[in-house]
Amino acid sequence: MVEQLSYTGNLEVGKPADYNFYLTASVYNFSFWFNGETLILPIGEFILFVRENDPVLKADIYSPPGSSRVGISPDIVKHVLGLSEDLRGFYELASKDPLLSDSIRVLAGMHFRAVTPWLASLVAVCQQNASFKQGWRMYYNIIKAFGKRVRIRGLETYIPPEPGVILRAGPEVLRATRIGYRARTVTGLAELFSRKPYLNTWDIRPVELEEELSSVKGVGEYTKRLVLALSLRYYGKPPIDRWLRKIASVVYGVEEESVEEEYVKRWGNWSGLAALYTTVALDAEPLSTALERIRAGLTRPDPSKYSPLTLWKYL
DNA sequence: TGCCAGGCGGGGT
DNA sequence: ACCCCGCATGGC
């Protein structure tokens, strides 16, 4: 069953001169949410069609039948798109960084789109103990299996599921998303966000969200930090996994045990963003390939690869 | 064919 | 505080 959404208005938001819409729309995205030109942005029950209309971004708003029409504020759109995120401090550090200085030339103006804490937690769990490809395939499967299929202007897209949808669907549908043993964790997260819906906002304090996430079995330090970065734009604590731990130990010449300390010393409140940028700069290559690329000085993204920036062309 | 990953927790020491 | 192992799945 495909539901039809209808046009209910539009809004314009200012676009800073150094903001790169194409990169922001591209990074870690799927084909049903970006086609190379228009960003199809689900926010709550609404879908926004966002495109560049210099010097602003223009968003057409589509709503389900009988919906309240209110509920999309420019501030929300700005948060999601990172329009009020001032990255100058980050670029200053990155320009002197042995790993990222090269890539910021081509990635300047890219922001990571924010998702809700609930969806960020799904993304994060899918990254656990899996390659980039497998992780995003799992998240893709979840959106397609549980999301709401909607039609707008003749094209089909998906509104991601609320946590209750996953709880009601039963374990066999979840198994079909091929997330393996992560299913337990996803169920635990769905229970948490169902029980405490106030956690699933962009106003929640990072420490509170972090603490609540800790109660879910299967959610550890890495997952929590990734959630804070992807939903709240909180970058003070970097999500360091085996991949980044090894890479940073090589690049900065420190023991793996002290990578986090070194990372926070260098990046401060930009630590989490630096971690995310690193995955883009190295095309999220598996560890051994990533290390070879660093040795060869190939630390810019390669547009011909299946990578965080081109994922939307493949899935 | 077997390994073995952008984690994590449980059970050992 | 540490190791160390299993875990679902898919990619190589």
Provide a descriptive summary of the structure in words.
The protein folds into 3 domains: 3-72, no CATH class; 85-110 and 234-301; 117-232, Hypothetical protein, domain 2 (Endonuclease III, domain 1), CATH 1.10.340.30. The protein has helices at 21-26, 74-81, 88-94, 103-107, 117-126, 132-146, 163-169, 171-175, 182-195, 206-213, 221-232, 242-252, 259-267, 271-281, 287-296, 311-314, and strands at residues 3-4, 6-14, 39-43, 46-53, 56-63, 148-152, 155-159. The chain contains 16 helices and 7 strands. Helix content is 45%, strand content 13%. The strands form 2 sheets. A 4-stranded antiparallel beta sheet has the order 2-5-4-3, covered by helices on one side. Strands 1-6-7 form a 3-stranded mixed beta sheet. The chain is globular. The structure holds a DNA duplex (13 and 12 nucleotides).
Cα Rg? 19 Å
The overall strand count is 7
In terms of per-residue confidence, which ranges show pLDDT below 50 for 5 or more consecutive residues? none
CATH topology of the largest domain: Endonuclease III, domain 1
The pLDDT mean sits at 96
Major β-sheet annotation: 4 strands, antiparallel
Terminal residue distance: 22 Å
CATH architecture of the largest domain: Orthogonal Bundle
SS summary, helix count: 16
**Percent of sequence in beta strands:** 5-15%
- Which CATH class of the largest domain is shown? Mainly Alpha
Give the CA-based shape: globular
The spatial strand order of the largest sheet comes to 2-5-4-3
Order of helices and strands: EEHEEEHHHHHEEHHHHHHHHHH
CATH-assigned homologous superfamily of the largest domain: Hypothetical protein, domain 2
Helix content: 40-55%
Structural class: alpha+beta
Tally of discrete structural domains: 3
